[in-house]
Amino acid sequence: MFSRKHCYFFVRPKRNVLELCVFLGRVLKAPQVRPVDRASKSKLYHIIHISHRDEVEPPITDWLQEAYELSNVLMSKGLKVRAKSKKGAGGARVQSKFET
Fold it and tell me: I need a surface site. Which of 23, 30, 31, 95 has the fewest CB within 10 A?
């Protein structure tokens, strides 16, 4: 997961656990979730510690799916806003590099 445009989760290997950071649009209330803080005006990040591979099952996989879907929604909204705001000389619309 190496993207400069958008990120929906990342993993930090620690000595005894994997620290999973998931970006969601809502606050999770679960025992697996450590601190929750705001990453941007539309995303909150949630820290989850995973100590065994058997822990990677629902609800964690559901949260990853939700984060992926949220990133696609936010990315598509961002492209539409950027494409509409780019104007050339004389008010003509200039095609963005993301449009084909």
Answer: 31
- Residues 68-90: pLDDT tens digits? 998 888 877 765 655 555 555 55
| pTM to 2 decimal places | 0.69
Q: Judge whether 50 and 56 are in contact, CB under 8 Å.
A: yes
CA separation, residue 66 to residues 77, 81, 82 (Å): 17, 23, 24
CA 9 from centroid of its chain's CA atoms: 6
For residues 78 and 98, the answer to whether their CB atoms sit within 8 Å is: no
Supply φ then ψ for residue 71, to 5 degrees: -65, -35
Q: What is the residue-wise DSSP string for 64-93?
A: HHHHHHHHHHHHHHHHHHHHHH-B-GGGPB
Sequence spans of domains, the chain: 9-87
